[in-house]
Structures are given as C-alpha cells and as structure tokens.
Amino acid sequence: MTRKTLTAALAAAMIGTASLTAAPALAGQISINLTPADADQEKAMRMGLGMYALFNGIKNGGIKQNGSGNAAGLAQNGSGNLGVVHQEGNGHTGTLEQNGIGNACGLFQFGQNTNGHVQQNGNGGTCATLQFGW
Fold it and tell me: Whole-model pTM?
C-alpha cells in the first residue's frame, strides 16, 4: 500500500466514523474538522492515527511534507500525546499544538496554499482536520 493510498484510506475511515463539520471555502480552501461522537468512533480514529504513525515511523509526533514552500510546526505540552502534521502539495502552512495528557490529533493538508492551525487542550482527546486547497 502506498503512502498516498494509506493517507486516503485513513481520511475515508475518519470521515466514516466521526461527526463532521465543514467550514465554507475561503480563499481556495476547504477544511473538514473531525471529532468522534462516541467511544467507538474515538477508538477507531485513535487507531487510525496510530496506524498512520506506525507506518511513518512516528512515535509521539511528527511532520511529513511532500512538495515545496511548506511550513509546519508541532508543539506538545504533556505526556502520551500523538500529533501529526502531514502536507502534500505546495505552499501549505500548518501547526498543531497539544496541551494535556493522552491526546491524539492529525492535521492533513492536500493541494496547495492551505493554512491550518489546530489547538488541542485537555486530556484524552482525539481529533483530525483535513484541508484541501486550490
């Protein structure tokens, strides 16, 4: 399975198991924020993020970029957190900040020129943000 296929499968799994809110398209970008609605969805999303991390050699946090002109940051305050920023394409800016214990979150950006900043506070939370730019 290729990395792009795995990323697409992860995104599809998250969309299928989480409540979904979509922001309107602004400046050529659409954002989809995923948060689990119940314990089973939370477990599935956390497992998906964990599989992504395992496949990409990420232990607690990591940044993966394919393209040019991308900028990313990851800050973790606390223990047992898993944070991922993944960028495919050009001109993306993305940050993920986790404050607390045992959180899992991913920011996935595709296309070009997306701008995303996710902050996760508390303990045991799970989330993902998918952004597509053109």
Answer: 0.81
